[in-house]
Amino acid sequence: MPANSLQVKLFTFNPFSENTYVLYDATKECVVIDPGCADKEEQQELQRFIQAQGLKVVRLLNTHCHIDHVLGNKFIADTYGVPLEIHEADLAVLRAVPTYSAAYGFPQYQEVLPEKFLKEGENVTFGETELEVLFTPGHAPGHVVFYHPQSKNLIGGDVLFHRSIGRTDLPGGDHNTLLQSIRTKLFTLPEEVTVYPGHGPSTTIGEEKASNPFLS
């Protein structure tokens, strides 16, 4: 693996078909973003990959804190001894999860609270990699995305999807705020940037600028 080449590994977990990402580079240090693993089988799948690649988990990041993106937080935090990092504006969203997790079919959900807060302008570093943190509220009040300029990869959570956008009918959601986040934070990136969303297939900034029906 050449120096400064970022590898992106995708897992699709839980009944919401949520995309969990492991990012790693030549140093074998890695970050886990939005672990949605909801049961032992999914936890083991994630763990097996990390082990097989000889990776060292150094950070646990959430783009936002809806239940489908945080189900595996405690597993990752406990297994690898890393603190959870989220944007402070999503703390209330995270703290609400135990109040509805059983109703959504996850009575076994265990909460882990953040020890660090992500801020726009404060980059996330691991190994030889630096990810820019962009604040993109609208789907959730504290939503962030992670951008790697060198490889033109963006881990986008539930902001922008292939021909779609994040829903805004959940508590803390706001449609106009979401559209503004997409236009000012994402659509200002190069068109060839690959967007890895929280659900569904990857897309590019150029493709969504040209053909996303919500943003025409």
From TrEMBL:
<keyword id="KW-0479">Metal-binding</keyword>
<keyword id="KW-0378">Hydrolase</keyword>
<dbReference type="Pfam" id="PF00753">
    <property type="entry name" value="Lactamase_B"/>
</dbReference>
<protein>
    <submittedName>
        <fullName>MBL fold metallo-hydrolase</fullName>
    </submittedName>
</protein>
<dbReference type="InterPro" id="IPR036866">
    <property type="entry name" value="RibonucZ/Hydroxyglut_hydro"/>
</dbReference>
<dbReference type="GO" id="GO:0016787">
    <property type="term" value="F:hydrolase activity"/>
</dbReference>
<keyword id="KW-0862">Zinc</keyword>
<dbReference type="InterPro" id="IPR001279">
    <property type="entry name" value="Metallo-B-lactamas"/>
</dbReference>
<feature type="domain" description="Metallo-beta-lactamase">
    <location>
        <begin position="17"/>
        <end position="199"/>
    </location>
</feature>
<dbReference type="GO" id="GO:0046872">
    <property type="term" value="F:metal ion binding"/>
</dbReference>
<dbReference type="InterPro" id="IPR051453">
    <property type="entry name" value="MBL_Glyoxalase_II"/>
</dbReference>
